[in-house]
Amino acid sequence: GQSLEQPSEVTAVEGAIVQINCTYQTSGFYGLSWYQQHDGGAPTFLSYNALDGLEETGRFSSFLSRSDSYGYLLLQELQMKDSASYFCAAFLGAGSYQLTFGKGTKLSVIP
Amino acid sequence: ETGVTQSPTHLIKTRGQQVTLRCSSQSGHNTVSWYQQALGQGPQFIFQYYREEENGRGNFPPRFSGLQFPNYSSELNVNALELDDSALYLCASSLGGTGNTGELFFGEGSRLTVL
């Protein structure tokens, strides 16, 4: 089957750096996306890795290692508004928009 | 704001009833997919439509069905509702074909409660 594992909860201090890890076990893996979802809101796209290495988008970076079936999302200079759930999601094939999501990591940013 | 709109935002049904949820995709997007998100869980893929044809389906029974219209808007229909169908139903649009950037544009969802 398809599965993505990520920690259920993380707490970090405002201004700090936090890393959310994701390990995956899927067939037909094509790339790894990250989404943010505030309570009651829509998932919003943060980052995508199709190739190994680091992708940087402002305060957010994402990393992928295909050989280790592992990725992470790095959030820098944490702000209170970053408190949300973060999901890693695997694309299973080129041209397909079927995403398999992890269960999500609830990030709490404290003063 | 992603430009993806869903209706209704909330609804309550009883077991055995049928429900239709609607989605207008972002302008120019020809691919729509539907996801079910139970409380505290990640979204689960239901199916995907590309140019009015279903071209991918997740592990959901046939009582979950859908349509995509020529303007690329879409409907999700669920028959014979069960208590476990209570969830947030998310619609996501994207531009199909090559050049997958890994980005889906999600609507705010329709929250269905089955009593």
Describe this structure in words.
- The complex is a heterodimer of chains A (111) and B (115).
- Chain A is mostly beta strands.
- Helices cover 0% and strands 57% of the residues of chain A.
- Chain A is built from no helices and eleven strands.
- In chain A, a hairpin with a 2-residue loop joins strand 6 (53-57) and strand 7.
- The relative contact order of chain A is 0.34.
- Chain B is mainly beta and 115 residues long.
- The radius of gyration of chain B is 13 Å and the shape is globular.
- At the A-B interface, strand 4, strand 5, strand 9 and strand 10 of A face strand 4, strand 5, strand 9 and strand 10 of B.
Low-confidence segments of chain A, given as residue ranges, are none
Would you report the number of β strands of chain B?
A: 11
* Quaternary: heterodimer
What is the terminal-to-terminal distance of chain A? 40 Å
Give the averaged pLDDT of chain A, no decimals.
93
Q: Proportion of β residues of chain A?
A: over 45%
Rg result of chain A: 13 Å
What is the number of helices of chain B? 0
Largest sheet of chain B: 7 strands, mixed
Given the C-alpha coordinates, what overall shape of chain A results?
globular
Tell me the series of helices and strands of chain B, N- to C-terminal.
EEEEEEEEEEE
Which short descriptors sum up this protein?
heterodimer, A: 111 residues, mainly beta, six-stranded mixed sheet, five-stranded antiparallel sheet, 57% strand, B: 115 residues, seven-stranded mixed sheet, four-stranded antiparallel sheet, 50% strand, globular
What is the structure about, briefly put?
Chain A is mainly beta.
